Structures
1.
Amino acid sequence: MAASDSGSNASARVTARTDTKNNNDNLFRAPAGSVSDFSDPAAYALASQSEVVPGRRLQLDTAKRLPPSPSGATLQGIGSGSRFLLRADNKRTEPVGQIPGHSPSEPSSALPLTIGGMIESDPAFQQLKLFTFTGHPESASGWTGFNQEPNLPPSPNMMLADAVSPPTSRPGIPATPRSRAGVLQSIPDVPPLPITSHSRPSASRAVSSVPMQRKPSVFFHRPSTASLHSRLPSRSGRNGPAVGNAVEQAGRIHTRRHFVSRRLPLGYSAEKPWLTGQAKAEKFLSWIVFVAFVVGLAIIGVLIWVGTTEIQNYKYCTVLEDNFDEGFLNTTIWTHDVQVGGFGNGEFEWATSSSNNSFVREGKLYIVPTFTADAIGADNMMNGYTVNLTKTGTCTSTADSDCAVRSNSTLGDMIPPIMSARLLTRSFANIRYGKVEVRAKLPQGDWLWPAIWMMPTDSVYGPWPASGEIDICESRGNDHTYPAGGVNVMSSTLHWGPTPALDRYWRTHDTLALKRTTFADGFHTFGLEWSDKYIMTYLDGRLRQAIYHKFATPFWTYGTFPSTYDNGSTVFDPWPSDDLQAPFDQEFYLILNVAVGGTNGWFPDNQGDKPWNNDDRQTAMSSFWNARDKWQKTWGDEDSRGMIVDSVKIYSMC
């Protein structure tokens, strides 16, 4: 803010005496029109107990704010706090000093220069500022104009300077030099004043740095505080020619601010209205939550009770319990299914009765796939070799295609590249309603297909799937990244329908997956419970069910079969009786096997880098064999690529 008349260029030297009566020569001077910073108690004392002489001697006056000038300008402090006013004392008329532009002999009454100043303080920063102003020399009253420099915010540190005044003179009195030591000795002790939070002196202002001790102020009341020296912030620039050398000589003085404790006083007790009592509405809400909790527990209890009553604990009689402790495979219990036709699934294995593919070792049954080339030679697999199981009398199928095969490179026919085993309990253990538990570890290796499943003994309702199929567990030897599910996933399914095309297995199918482990990492129990009320498969106990189907609706109704086939022929119900369990109301036997590959869709096309196509059944087997450099390394040894069975238990309902 700046407001001045055209004649405000008159300059004057502002001096402040520390002792006007004794005419002490210790002076503090600042240019006229500037803002002098009295951030030190010494500077405040210097100003408050002395005269300010801008060509005319002034005395300290604690008068209130100046009246407005004719031009409307008023003297206003910056920030809040105590304000003290310095005004001209016109009682003294003798000329003092030289005012440029006027003759020394000119009477002082012709120079009605009115110069004033304001000391401003703010309790927030402990800094005192004295603002001096120049008035128009042609005006005898009021404040015609003033100049004020912008105020800057204080910085944490402050460079203080003690200006040594040059000699001053009065008419008839010789100039007397002023010393720095004299200034220091003549300044009384006064308390520090607050710093204004609204201003910071510019580089052109004079700065006092005289250190003083705290003493009570004579001008205003201030609460007593701990001793603290207030200092102005340091500046990178000089304060001007008058004080530049002094600033450089003063050095830095580091100060501390007041410590304000935020610790709660002893005995302080905060109000806690929420502890005094609860409103009725709050109590009502608490009761609602409590009642809802009790009702929820009751509902859970009812559901548990209903679930336990639906799954009845039947009395079972043991039909088969084989722990393979005899050291050999008991062929009275287990029979081999020997075929080369792929079992209707286009599988790539030759099911044998060889001890290389099924054997007992260390109390466990092993079903291990091997390479056919190791038995008959690699060249015979592709051309000119014949396998005739009918001639040897080992084939277990009545279909010629399942009992004989001849390799022919021209036609693309080859001997199944893998030998494996399929073991049955058909001749020893068949049950209608009962329980089955097989504890086993599944094989790991690409395109291996282990299975624990059951087929009907007599196929009462017709060929597959009319008479049904129970898959307790099926899996794939691929790793867990295989999209269709690898060795970490087991599938459980019931197959049923009038024809293979109308197999409604997807209505009675589900899976269970292991986390952070696989079925090849350890032994698990794969179980079946089967009664005239329900059929259920589970993993490692009844609490982890795979599928659960309650016999509440006939399968013909449940399957929603069409009335005709695509060719227009009629679709007949293969289960005409009112039996809700049909086709699962007849005897079934257990099958354990490890298959390889297939074209039935168990290994979907375009997933997991599968080397063959399910639609190209003529070349699927050879395509699989020719890509053996990719999948053979995933099979591992017998313990890895084979299914290892620890025990088999079959029960019937007593």
2.
Amino acid sequence: DPNQAIYGFRGSDPAWFYRFIEALHPEQHSLVRNYRSGPVLVKAAGQLIGADPGPDSLAGPMAGGEGQGDIFIHRSSSAVAEAVFIAGQVERLLGGTSHREIDKLADRSDDAGLALGDIAVLYRTGRQAEVLAGVFAERGLPVQVVDIVPFYLSGPALVLYLWVLIAAERGDSANLLVLLGREKGIGRRSLGGLEPLLPVGCRDPLAALSGVKEKLPARLGAAVADFQALRTRLRKTAAETGIEPALRSIVLPRYQLDPAEGEVVRFLRLAVTFGSSLTSLADHLQHYKDSVVYDKRAEAVALMTLHASKGLEFPVVFLAGLEEGLLPFAPRQPLTAAEEQRHLEEERRLFYVGLTRAERMVFLSHAAGRRINGKTCSRQPSRFLREIPAALLRRAETGQANRRHARNKIQQLSLF
């Protein structure tokens, strides 16, 4: 679907579709019917993408699904107020309320009951997740934060990831060198001397270094021996009690990782699902290291960038931060007129992708003010909001949700 070409920074461009057609003259069949989203949602998405003035734009989709669909719009005073609003609406959806607009959802589906995993909050930049995740945590609403770059490739979870690879004999020389570089007294010069000793494509670099330990400087040799002993302990403990207890009791203390830190908690929860199989976990992590990591089994609201949401679908979607400067995103450097047009076309397609992730309901949210680089700045609604007919939009009401009911519902969901 050329209208979903949103990875321009990776070379994605809808023009490739048309160049292919011009070059090879293939037989064409257009699949335009959307069976996921309700007619109102499909019509809004069609109006949005139809406003694209670019030469490569296509006609919008046709509705093929059941149910009408609803689009609510809301303006908050700040990013925090926006997060509070979204969390409140999630509580309403999960816990039941007398709110007449949301209650109509039950009349439009044979099985309208919603679980945490049925709801997604989408935004343009990863930085927007921090405020949202903080407010959700305060309200006891579990979330899984999803981004294009897997969380375990940076931050505190990186050490856990690397040790899983080394323990499972799935790590390469670069993985081992990163871990050795964290050892006291081992710097770049020492690591540079190791590279000639590691065969290209070596499947077990730790074993390879252990075999030439006598050729290594004393400090490096001691570190390699220590790593071998640690790997043996890690494997033994994982086999006896599981990967999660092994990482918690061996790796966390060694690197002084906080077991309550968000990314560490997230990694350990993932490890639990693989029991004692280090190879299965390592293969899973490597398989997804160049793509989006999203666990559809998680009993949690999904917080993710619009880029990461492509290919997914949810009964309810919140689109947050629909403001000038965020969507469309403000370029970091000046653009020519042609570059500016291409940029806006891709930003519009991002909005289109977000809208079409929803099956039943979309909440469009923007804030009047937002802190940027430590300063509170006034914000204007996204120009793309004006491209959706007002007749399709409904003002979202606010108020207190039945918090006790919502929390009880969440606890029940987490048991299954």
3.
Amino acid sequence: MANKILPRGHLERIWAPIPHLRTEEEYRTLKPGGSKFRLQTEQLLDWEDFTQSTKHLSDPYCGNHSPFMPVIPTETFGVANELGVQGRFVQNALHPVGEVVNFLNLGMSFGDSQWGVNRRKGNKKKKHGRDESEDEVNPKGGKRGTLIPDIVLVESQRHTIRALCEVKTHWGFQPGKNETWKTFMSQKMGQLARYMDDNYCRYGIYTVYEYTWFLKRVDDTHFAVSQAISASTISTSSVGSLRECLLAMVIRAAHEEWSYYPVRYGKRLQELMPQKTFLNFQVLPWELIVGLPAVFSELRRTGLLFLLP
């Protein structure tokens, strides 16, 4: 895969923040969707070199960073539910990255769940237009339903899934009473971890649009999570914007060996150990967690985000 530097127009779009959502409290769903699949806190680790590895992967295509004035359009489309958030994330974050991926001929693309094929079944004909997960639930109607990811990242030739993305709303996305942020995030990452396990993927993306986390499987039962990447982050020589982080994720996923995890652990993944109580953690208000970028150093110091040291 020969490297080529992106033209200035593509560079500035990759380095720029994405627009903030247009949403109003009185016109939106009450809480984000949930899942019965959860990780224990012991299973979620720091992705300690996430920023460095992101820059290492993106720099050959982005070159040396130089100052610029980002153009950030104002959203005109209002969102009030998870589907709306997913649509705006696709348009504002994934579409610009997809244009760069096409320009670089990386042979990868984002799509909805039916766009992808489980890599273990990539040489088999799909049934009913999609591959079914082994995660199944029994809705109130009594019928068995198949759980599928929101977004997949596939290689273009055979559409085998290399990474997955789960989208939630940012409103109501906060720890419950007496629940630590670390416990909350471990539980939230469980659904994405299940999809990664089902599809033999090492990498995943979890987003509430305003903040995005990147997940890496490190062994059969443990996952490493990045620091929260803000939608308003602008790339610098040492920090990557959301789009730059997504581009680096595509580069990781394009490497067949890097992106493949050969073991499927199944339902045992969420049945490993009893939940423990962490007495040395504090509960901070959500406004403090997402309010200012500068607060992350304090959160990391106290261990509340359980992310980069």
4.
Amino acid sequence: MLKPKAKFTKKEMKKDPLLETINTVFEKYNEHKSMIFRAGIGIIALTVIIVFLFNRQGSQQKPADILLGNALVSLDTGDIENA
């Protein structure tokens, strides 16, 4: 079934939904600017802490990985005493 054409008024044609959305986003940003900055700083700090912890854990794992690799090579060559 055919739908009737939507009738727009001149006032509705002058409105731009994209510009209205951008305007509301900027208004909300200006209202909550300090809270947004705090949240951003918190996220950055949390990311730095997580990266630091993972790097620290990785550096502690390297000697254990080397020893395990040496033991596996010794077992493959048949040297059970050094494994």
